[in-house]
């Protein structure tokens, strides 16, 4: 690997954190706008909801097909190019006058917004080994804030100038970010001689051969499933009696989740000190215990908020630890490791949503909490079996 032309300064860490947050936010702008977009294009709720599905499918394709390219090409150019293509996708959406064109723009944006998952391993590569976990934790905090603030920003901008304003502003921000990244990032290229099919194949080879990667990927899958189980059905609980909360009030619970998850940033620093086993074990135990408070949430808002704080703290803490640990496995394959790990993580989130919806429909909040607790126990068993690594 060529030596970077500059180190990882605090300013560059902030730039990469903001870029990561903006990139991932692109997939979350449509969620609060679906009703408005449905009215604008005369869509059914199901057709409008497909916009979010296309964003997720685009992101999933990008994880598998584009993130490994970071192990082939000079990464500054690749990151800037993908950021610009994501901005073009936002422009297509902003100027769309039919569902088909909007879906095209959404798919392009989702596909290239995985640039966030190239920035994370780049930060790990540039960071000093003793600070790698802390840096990864900081970048992941930027990603989380992007997810949280995307919905808030989209709602605010739409109320000021209509739903298209959201996409015009987002496209301009991504274009500006591409320029900032071009000026700020050092030149870093991996020196390997694999072609594209070999690079893709090696993602699966790494997953099959490396037990540590498999264990951490399964932990990520199951922890993110826990996250999705809670957040998919929580709106149903809060909108029903005895709470009867409005959508705006329900949205505020996301702040509790963000507070919890941002509190997990020190997990990376602990992993740097060789305490990844401790942070993982403690995190998975707390994750299981959080479901007790969440279950009491059917009668107590305070209990629910405590449960949200603990669950999001542990999910993010385990996630940061997982990434810090797997980046030590094979430094010249960090983008492929990210592709394998994040694909597993994404599958867990999708499965958690399906499990949560089914549990709510058949057994209400108790069923949702039981599903979450079972997945948390399964996660502990996976960790127990794989913790020899």
Automatic annotation (TrEMBL):
Phylogenetic placement of the source organism: Bacteria, Pseudomonadati, Pseudomonadota, Gammaproteobacteria, Enterobacterales
Any single Pfam family the record assigns to this protein: MFS_1
Keywords for this protein: Cell membrane, Membrane, Transmembrane, Transmembrane helix
InterPro entries (UniProt xref): MFS (IPR011701), MFS_dom (IPR020846), MFS_trans_sf (IPR036259)
An example molecular function term from Gene Ontology annotations: transmembrane transporter activity
Protein name: MFS transporter
Domain called Major facilitator superfamily (MFS) profile: residue spans: 12-389
Regions that span the bilayer: 12-29, 49-67, 79-104, 110-128, 135-160, 166-185, 217-239, 245-264, 276-294, 300-318, 339-359, 365-384
Highest taxon of source: Bacteria
PANTHER family: MAJOR FACILITATOR SUPERFAMILY (MFS) PROFILE DOMAIN-CONTAINING PROTEIN, TRANSPORTER SCO4007-RELATED
